[in-house]
Amino acid sequence: MTLKEIEAADFNLALTLDSGQVFHWEPSGTGYAGMIADRAVYVEQRSEHLLVSGGAGIAVRKYLALDHPLREICAGFPDDPALNAARDYCRGLRIIRQPLWECLATFITSSMKQVAHIRQISRALRERFGASATVYGSHVYAFPSAARLAGANQKQLRDCALGYRAKNLLLTARLVSSGEAALEGWRQLPDGELRARLCELPGVGPKVANCVMLFAYERLRAFPIDVWIERVLKEKYFGRKRKITPQKLRDFCDNYFGEHGGYAQQYLFHHARRTMARKRNAKPTRQVPVSQ
DNA sequence: ATACAGGCTCGCC
DNA sequence: GGCGAGCCTGTA
Question: I want to staple A32 with a disulfide (CB 3.0 to 4.6 A). Which of A25, A233, A236, A274 is the partner?
């Protein structure tokens, strides 16, 4: 398998693939192996370039949103201490373009779950229902189609550790595979209508809808509010003590962060997750024993 | 061990 | 039409 070089300025692959927007890329050698839709891909970073497995260059460039004018997007953020710190910390992080169904299904399974577990669920669904392929020495699996999951039963999904989410995923898979929920057709809807349609799907509320809008529909204004970002916003923009209603918070996010609010959200989110998580692990439990 | 996670839904008021 | 409890399961 030959690797081909493509240009990737203002980009950080590791940061992008491990910032909580996508959950299936596995470390492989000095890079990552995974799937872009039905194509098995290996990709690794060499400073301002990416090395990509045969023929996948164009697909990778689109998937990783290397065409986003990242410098301008970041320069357009509001000028405040929280965002300035996050922008500095997350240099090169891009909001990627995921396949619609895969992204929707994954975020339906994400509710009340930590990243590690979302990854496990994604892998279980892929291994059990997805087509497999080999790339650059790694075995990878495609995310199963809506039709494939619609044909499964609830127990099979529960066996993938979905719990109560199994029912929602199954119902939504049926709506999508029957065409009643025309995910591709919804691309042309304005933000508000798209969000309303998504929220009609079982297991999809405002948070999941905004994630799908941001990570799959390229709505860079969409601003998902989860417990992490809520913590950050209250602390950095409202002061811990002050009480604020969810609606006020929502209005603030939609107005303050502007047309690339989703990018701002992702930067604030990832910065907070990394720095707060580190505090929690300040006393490492897995010390490497010193051999005599 | 036992809270508690990157929410949604339904039932209750 | 707002509020709170319940839902499954792995991780910390």
Answer: A25
